[in-house]
Amino acid sequence: MTRWLGVFRKDRVVQFFRVLRRNGLREAMRRARVHIRALALGVEPSAVSQPAGPAPIANRFDFAPVWRDLAQVQAFGISQAPAVLMQRRAVALIGDLNLPQCRKYRVEQMDELLATEDIAYQYAHFEDVPRCREILQDATHLVLYRLGRSDLATMYLYEARRLRLPVLYDIDDPLFSVSAYETYANMEGLSPQEKAHFVNEAPLYADVMNMADAVSLSTPGLMAHASCYSVRPAYLRRNFADRETLAAGAQAMSRRRRRTGPTVAVASGSRGHGADLAVIQDDLVTWLEGGSDRNVVLLGHLDRDGFPDSVRPQVSVTPFTRYSTYLGHLASADAAIVPLADDPFNRCKSSVRAIDAAAAGVPVLVSNVGDLNAVVRDGETGLVVPEGGWGSALAHVLDQATMEQMGRNARANIERRWSAHAAPPIVDPGLLRWVAA
Length: 437
Hints:
There is one protein chain. It contains 20 helices and 12 strands. With about 425 residues, the protein is an alpha/beta fold. α6 (about 100-115) links the parallel β1 and β2 (about 120-125).
């Protein structure tokens, strides 16, 4: 029995998942069966039981055996780019897909956008090597999303050059920027070790960005900031309300259950946004003190610690959850608020929180920072709040009829102007010309 329990020893489980990520399920299961048979025979692999002779030569890159075989038969490169040979366009995206919001807005919704131009599209997580190899072979263009320098990123770039694929680097935060991190107010909520990690990683993102042929970025502010770190041609590709967003928002509106009393919702999809909430903390407390029926709903990675005991019962917290459920919580509020501290990192921020709220028919009160004012039409679909103006902006929430009309306007605005179409304000025409080239 003890022998079989050894199958689940930590190092063996870790090795199984490492092979699964790098070589796929078939190879991971093959190796697992070999190991289990060895255990059944009472054979424990050890240094003593290894066959004599030199150790096999390890390849640093998974693609290396194929590269070497092709080189030996003088077939390493191809004569013409796939886009020329196939007379069609097929985009492959390889990226870091771990953050749900980023995956939704920068990876998954690209399928809907490219479909409007009849361009094929596939994507893969950068650690899924078999899948990445597969989509590269059928691509005419490669997009690397949110990747820093690593052996895997280097390998995909090398393979793209072998296949003559133009390479685009896509990113939606200034992860490449030491200057943005060092002045980012929300970094104060992280440990010194975490802060050092982000700063140390920044040049690795800049490396991959500068090895691509062109760059696409999510906001004008991010484009301006990236110009300090890269001279590559840069194109704007904003986030938008895809079919899933609009459908989930419509469902949230149909099931809307208003809370008793005026309610505002504040959301954060990632940790460390305490500095943004602090922008309006005092104004929120004052607003809550104006009536015991007033409510603040904190969604995602936020807490009530900054609120005094006198108003804390009026503040509820809903942890990070499914997207449709999140929109349902938004729909229960009279307004959503998106405060941002004014710093270089936040000036690169996109309008995803405003898009989410508008999809659910909720008006949005936003700081005049980043790209939020591109989606919010001041006084029509929400309010763009200047510095020091949050007290008067929150007073508008008490006018429920006005909030409801703004919410209807917000929904109509994203349906008309911010749904999938490959044209401004969502996509720079130059990016489409780059893909068509």
